[in-house]
Amino acid sequence: AALTVRFLTRRFIGEYGDMEFIYSHNLTVDGREILLHIWDVPNSQEQAEDGSSEEKRIQWADSFVLVYSICDRASFNILPLKIQFIKAAKEGQSQEKVPIVIVGNKRDLHHARAVSSEEGRLLALSLDCGFYEVSAAE
């Protein structure tokens, strides 16, 4: 949620509950106006739900940004399964590759790092995803 709000408002808010939100945002790219709808779901909520809710979100979306904390190995370790689930649901219907980006957040907390940048890059490469490391705080 912090990363989504930072992207949309350019402000950092450090504390969020485990709430699900859908945001809408207009963006101009290459002179074209694009309306983005962002369905922000905290990982803890996804784990508590059945697969049909997650399947509904996957069918709704055109692309995916999966965020993990570089300070939390568990948030990183669940990514391969989530990506496989997304690809099976989306790419099984068509021959098009589904756009997926893996984002390691909290780069500013390097002293508490539990997942190296190299691990993130290698995972993204092995799963044919984009990769970035960022700091919502900075």
From TrEMBL:
The keyword Hydrolase applies. Its EC number is 3.6.5.2. Keywords: GTP-binding, Hydrolase, Nucleotide-binding. The keyword Nucleotide-binding applies. It catalyses: GTP + H2O = GDP + phosphate + H(+). GO terms for molecular function: G protein activity; GTP binding. Belongs to the small GTPase superfamily. Ras family. PANTHER family: RAS-LIKE FAMILY MEMBER 11. This is small monomeric GTPase. It comes from Dicaeum eximium.
